[in-house]
Amino acid sequence: MNKTRKLISLLPENTDCAVITSEDNRNFFLSFAASNGTLIATKKGAFFYTDSRYITAAKQSIKDAEVRLQTKSFYDTLNVFFEEEGIKTASFEAKHTTIEEYAFFKKEIKGVEFDFSGDIDNLILKIRRKKSADEIEKIKAAQAITDDCFSHMCSFIKEGMTEKEIQLELDFYLLSHGADALSFETIVVSGENSAKPHGVAGSRQVRKGDFITMDFGAVVDFYHSDMTRTVALGFASEKMKKVYNTVLEAQEAGIEAAVDGARCSAVDKAARDVIEKAGFGKYFGHALGHGVGVEIHENPCFAPKSEEVFEQGDVVTVEPGIYIPDQFGVRIEDMVVNLGDETLNLTHSPKNLIVL
Q1: Does residue 167 sit in helix, strand or coil?
Q2: Please, what are the averages of pLDDT over each run of 10 residues along the chain (356 residues)?
Q3: Pairwise CA distance, residues 80 & 82, whole Å
């Protein structure tokens, strides 16, 4: 069953259609990139409206929805469609609708009851969460580029380079070796800056005795990869080695705990316990991991308060970290997929402490 057909089969009984305007969800259902477009899933079928810039490409590419040219305004198009199809109730993506847009819906759309409850958002997230074999292969392809990039960076980084120069080389390598886009703004932080989990690459020059943390990923056919590696330049102090090895042990504990049916909070705890036992608990403030797919952050999450269970088809990062303010930080991140009978690590870059 294709993705749009699955959505149609799961539409709530109390709605006649789902109106999908967010780019990520359109990409997921149609595998078609466009800055303009509306997917309408009714119990009779799926329809995609777009303007003249994309209509030819959409007709050539989209197989799972009837493609139509949008010649009127968005609201006029909906009014005509709703009238023609006898739509009386329509569900919208509450999480992607602004207050201003909601006001326009109420003003411009006539004779239709709106559902902005978030139920359709939750349904779509449920469909997106369980990755198919094809989706997993796309994530693997994205991660293969990311792994190759890390290998390249280990030979590229030299003392005196700035964080920004390293970031630009990372980005160039990914985009010139098959990535359709970057998964997110690449993070490169060094020395005391590495204690900032989501620090921004700047003009700081890397020098001997630094930790350098690189968090980066590639997009292939709309699917993301995500990996973090921390390396040392020149040498690592005994404290640096202790912190690094603690993070590595925690990550391995988290991966080992990530088995089919495990509580996501228990996976987080397995890693967090290692860090706390080593005396660094207060320096690990974020969740252990997040789902990855057509968005870089999806469900489920390995987090202390998560009530979810690690299920077959889930692709989730495992990324413990220790960040000591004004000194240094370490994060190691892999992606794992639950295949039911096993949990497969999709990341193949080495994790032993590398001193460049």
Answers
A1: helix
A2: 91 93 95 94 95 95 95 92 94 92 87 92 96 97 98 98 98 98 98 97 98 98 98 98 98 98 98 98 98 97 98 98 98 98 98 98
A3: 6
pLDDT for res 102: 86
CA distance 220 to 80: 36
Domains defined along the chain, listed by start? 3-129 (3.40.350.10), 133-345 (3.90.230.10)
298, 300, 304, 309: CA torsion to nearest 10: 180
Residue 47 in tokens: 């329809």
- In the DSSP assignment, the letter for residue 39 is E
**Model pLDDT, residue 1:** 67
Handedness of CA 272, 274, 279, 284 (dihedral sign): negative
Query: How big is the chain, counted in residues?
Result: 356
Coil, helix or strand at residue 189: strand
The pTM is what?
A: 0.95
In 3-state terms, what secondary structure has residue 204? coil
> Do the Cβ atoms of 139 and 292 come closer than 8 Å?
yes
CA distance 63 to 80: 23
C-alpha distances (whole Å) from 194 to each of 20, 59, 182, 317, 351 are 39, 47, 21, 20, 17
Cα–Cα distances (Å) from 122 to 71, 87, 299, in that order, read: 31, 22, 10
Using CA atoms, how far apart are residues 167 and 189, in angstroms rounded to an integer? 9
Strands (E), the chain: 17-20, 38-42, 46-50, 66-69, 89-92, 113-115, 181-182, 187-190, 210-216, 218-220, 223-224, 227-233, 289-291, 298-302, 315-318, 321-324, 328-331, 334-338, 343-345
